[in-house]
Amino acid sequence: MRRQAQRMERSGTPQSPVSGTECRKCARIRRLPCRAGLFLRAFFVYYLGMDIITLGNELLRQKAEPVRPIGAEYRKIAEDMIAALHEGKGVGLAGPQVGLMKRIFVVHIDRDVPRVFINPTITMTSQDQVKCEEGCLSIPGMYADVVRPESIQVQAWNERGRPFTLDAEGILARVILHEYDHLEGVLFIDRLSEPKRNKIISKWEKRKKA
Ligand SMILES: [Zn+2]
Question: pLDDT digit string (tens) for 148-182?
């Protein structure tokens, strides 16, 4: 998830190495088939670093697979994802956004430590819902108000393979839900009304062509 212009952005524009068109590395990774592809994508991400893919790349629409087992390589993957998150000046980044189709995301909001979630399950959502502006590192420059539960409980494993349960509210809950959606191939624009979604998509396409 991207920091918002006013409330959440540290500064500047998120780095988008792909700039709307797929880079050669992403294209190469995307062409790889199913299970062997998943392994090789993890390999590429591990050794070649991370580029954030953007709207239009079909990987953002696919469901990520569980991490089994949570090997030592996930410490470096999590570290690299946190570095990519900081570079992009975001607050959350999920595996599929860097072409890694595994159930992992990282979150780092202000006045909190970076957090890693592997194989997460949302075990509780509050009935209270709140509306707040969201952006996404995979749709840079686009923002919209999204309604989500105010508080949640999530169970997951960290990068060392240790399970934990976290009760989160406010912005932390929102970022976790946004990143969890990425693991399901869902983007924040899918949670908008159709006219609002179409408006963002056409604005995004115009910007891509510019
Ligand atoms: Zn996002």
Answer: 999 999 999 999 999 999 999 999 999 999 999 99
Residues whose CB falls within 8 Å of the CB of residue 128, separated by 6 or more in sequence, listed in order: 149, 150, 151
* Dihedral pair phi/psi, residue 67, rounded to 5°: -85, 115
| Marked catalytic residue, from 22, 134, 159, 179 | 179
The number of distinct structural domains making up the chain is: 1
The yes-or-no answer on residue 58 being catalytic is no
| Cα–Cα distances in angstroms (integers) from residue 100 to residues 22, 27, 65, 76, 109, in the given order | 15, 13, 9, 13, 22
pTM of the full structure: 0.80
H/E element, 120: strand 115-125
Radius of gyration over every alpha carbon of the chain, rounded to an integer in angstroms: 16
Q: 42 CA to middle of ligand 1, Å? A: 20
Peptide bond into 69 cis (omega under 30): yes
- On whether the CB atoms of residues 102 and 64 are closer than 8 A, the answer is yes
CATH of the domain at 95: 3.90.45.10
CA distances, 133 to each of 52, 78, 118, 146 (Å): 21, 26, 26, 6
Q: Determine, yes or no, domain membership for 75.
A: yes
